[in-house]
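User: Need the bound-state model for alpha-D-galactopyranuronic acid:
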Amino acid sequence: MIRLFEQHYVRRQRELDGMWRYVREDGREYSLPVPGCVEQHPELLTYRGKGSFYKRVSVREKTNIRLEFKGVSHTAEVYFDGAFVVHHYNAFTGFDGVIADVEPGEHEIRVCVDNSFNEESALHIPNDYYTYGGIIRPVVLEELGNAYIRELRFTPVRQDGVWQGVVEAWVENLTGKALDLEFTASLAGARAAGRVSLEAGRAGKAELSLSCGEAEEWNPDSPRLYLLHTGLLSGGVAVDDYIERVGFREIGRKDHRILINGKPVFLKGFNRHEDYGTLGCALPLQVMAQDMDLMREAGANAVRTCHYPNDERFLDLCDERGMLVWEENHARGLSLERMCNPNFDRQCRDCIREMITRHYNHPAIVVWGILNECDSTSREGREKYQSQYEQIRGLDASRPVTSATCKHFKDICLDLPDIVSFNMYSGWYEDVPVKERHEQEMDWIARAGGAGKPVIVSEFGAAAIYGCRDRGRCKWSEERQADIIRENLEVYREDPRLTGVFIWQFADCKVTEEEWFFSRARCHNNKGVVDEYRRPKEAFDVVKELFAGMNGGRRDDKTV
Ligand code: ADA
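Assistant: Bound-state model below.
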């Protein structure tokens, strides 16, 4: 499955899922499923290195082929019939390549994949999550005509109580001659058309406005979605189409709160890694749906995609279920030394661009995050935070930005984001009274640049080994994890200055043995309220009890 809705009827599209030939660097051959992680194979359980995936495809007539990879972990080099097509770094963002004038018949796709840690890789490093190897998300083969819609952006705006929709399309001309095309859009009963002129071999932009008076708004309790149909015509004949699924909603901020369509919202949810038992990070829709249902059962209305952009199909689920999303770029706990890796700035910039370009239309995404627990205490670090916030705001002015800090009392960047977020492990890493420590933190935030801003507790929690029970409620037991989460939630739910809390974390996840084995039993981060097979721990029911009716300590507002 590519997305949870059809994106094309004119453009020919097929998913290249199924078994691919995989040749490891030492020549050993395997047949592996795509999407998938190589680690699911018994001989590749801990493989870290290079290998090539091969797939043979056929086309019936001469055409332009677009290959889209939704995620390859973590570096990919793509070849078509032996000719280089595209290189991409980062497991968690999609990329594509176009091969023009492909002759009818059979052809070979080769994807060289590398998940090794090296100086080239500034973001995939030994960490408190695992960097798997493989083609971890769907691969799509499309057959294009003379021109195609490369990117489609929908921005909902409410004007005088009526929903308007701004539709922007970036169109590529694949021919050696100029083209004059018609661009059409239809949504929620409204239609519009315009023209786009393209120079030979160049791209152009089309923009239309739609007045959608009858449209119902999207909000967490009523996540109304609509299909935006767009098309390209040449001389009245359809040459391409592009369908997006959108929602009418606006994000705002007021009095310490995030607003959705003018109503205050309190985010209560989980940090969720894409990781499952023996499947690694290549989660099938079944697991995504199970995670959604379990988070909903716990009473969550929000999820943080720690610490990287997520699979579009999960974001589609969030759109359908009204699950609010804090999506963030790929970075976790990088020191200034690591942030000064020569590739760091570019790899972060690419990740942010690809994340926002591809995920902009998801109504469920309400916050963009960056640089979880990176260096925000130095001048050099601040420059990088500032640059990335500016990049995000330049790409999307419709959503607030934030970053989860753990640099308590030392962070010099709290004036930069729209929302201040902090990670706090009272009762686990720090045996301190939750309320006193929380008041200290909130006082410091107000003095250090966060005054008047919405505040989110972006991480709190404790570890428990599934099945470890102890009447003494020792640390690592399920009982103690439940106690610590209860103590924290009972404080946070009474604080009207908070606009959200995210428990660390939803499910246990694998971590790299290098650098982490000593503090991560089983080489897992065991702070899930369910284990890596989604078996609930005692804490799950505590969360369910306390999330119920939790709206951030305000009796007056009717948060959604
Ligand atoms: C940090 C970090 C998380 C995880 C957590 C923990 O807050 O952001 O990724 O490592 O600590 O489990 O200690």
